[in-house]
Design brief:
Length: 336
């Protein structure tokens, strides 16, 4: 009898330890923190205003973040390699001007779109080449190409907003009904790109190489990974993704705006940081970045519904970024 009781107590102790270990592993998943923050933000604004938790408003939040969210996908891949891209918003704006002006000028819209995306990819390739071949800091390189793309945008557009676009360019801004809510095709494209990015980074050799280079580039090189080729590819693919973000922007605004994207580089970095991706590279989940982009969108939308001045939205976003970076720094010290 005594042996049976002792065995039962031991089994329960093991079960408690196993459950505790599972809870700990779940709590340390990189997406749990951003998801919890997103749910808390939604709960707060749901209790603060009746207009927040409606299908139409939530669809609007996704529409408002689809451009920055897509930029954040490319930014995530770059940051996972311990780099950074300050030029993504400016490159995207130049891509939109190229595709809209060529389309309005008579070039078939699909070809104009490809050329616009190609221009963005070329900026990415230039960034990657300068970072790897010339061994220049990514911060400096992309700061330079930011100014180049900004200048080319205004020169090529002649500071004029391009209107009268063909329907092909604005197709992703169209909506379809989902229940009682209208959803844009662009929102679906953004979500699909997050799923593709998640699959590539998690289940392919290329994705594992990205994490390996960001975690320890020398060890990755010694293990046989061509770090230079990988980095150039990463920046080029990121550039192409910025081109897609530009197409989503054109679909939402129905114009080619030379003033677009001026703060989108910082917004995309904010989404990445809030999504739990380490600025030191090698750690983070792209699904967390989706949550990070939605956190920014929810906070701005919720504060706007509450009638809070836009400058306070910027203030709160800045505080959240500092907190997220502080948490990342503490986690990095604990790992060391």
């Amino acid at each position: 009898m005594s042996d049976t009781t002792e065995t039962s107590v031991t089994d329960r102790t093991e079960q408690v330890r196993s459950a505790s270990a599972k809870v700990t592993r779940f709590a340390t998943l990189p997406t749990v923190g951003p998801l919890a923050a997103l749910l808390l933000a939604c709960l707060f604004f749901s209790l603060s205003t009746d207009r927040f938790l409606t299908g139409g408003n939530l669809s609007l939040v996704v529409q408002q973040v689809m451009e920055v969210g897509t930029l954040a996908i490319g930014q995530t891949v770059v940051i996972l390699t311990a780099g950074i891209d300050l030029s993504n918003g400016a490159a995207m704006a130049f891509g939109t001007i190229v595709m809209t002006r060529l389309a309005v000028g008579g070039l078939p819209a699909p070809l104009a779109i490809l050329l616009g995306i190609g221009v963005c990819a070329a900026f990415g390739a230039l960034n990657g080449t300068l970072v790897t071949m010339a061994r220049l800091p990514a911060f400096i390189v992309t700061l330079g190409t930011l100014n180049i793309a900004f200048a080319l945008t205004h020169i090529y557009s002649r500071d004029q907003t391009i209107t009268g676009l063909p329907k092909t360019l604005t197709a992703l801004g169209q909506t379809f009904p989902l229940g009682n809510t209208d959803v844009t095709y662009g929102s679906v494209v953004m979500l699909a790109m997050f799923v593709i990015g998640w699959y590539v980074l998690r289940f392919t050799a290329a994705g594992r190489h990205v994490y390996a280079v960001g975690d320890n580039p020398e060890a990755a090189r010694l293990s046989g990974i061509s770090t230079r080729r990988l980095l150039i590819t990463v920046y080029t693919v990121a550039g192409a993704i910025y081109g897609v973000a530009g197409l989503l922007l054109v679909g939402r605004t129905a114009v080619g705006d030379p003033q677009a994207g001026q703060t989108d580089n910082l917004d995309s970095i904010t989404a990445v940081v809030l999504g739990g991706v380490s600025l030191f590279g090698g750690r983070g989940s792209i699904i967390g970045v989706l949550f990070g982009a939605l956190i920014v969108g929810v906070i701005r939308n919720g504060l706007q519904l509450m009638g809070v001045a836009s400058i306070y939205q910027v203030l709160i976003t800045g505080i959240l970024v500092i907190l997220a970076v502080g948490v990342d720094q503490l986690a990095r010290r604990r790992r060391a």
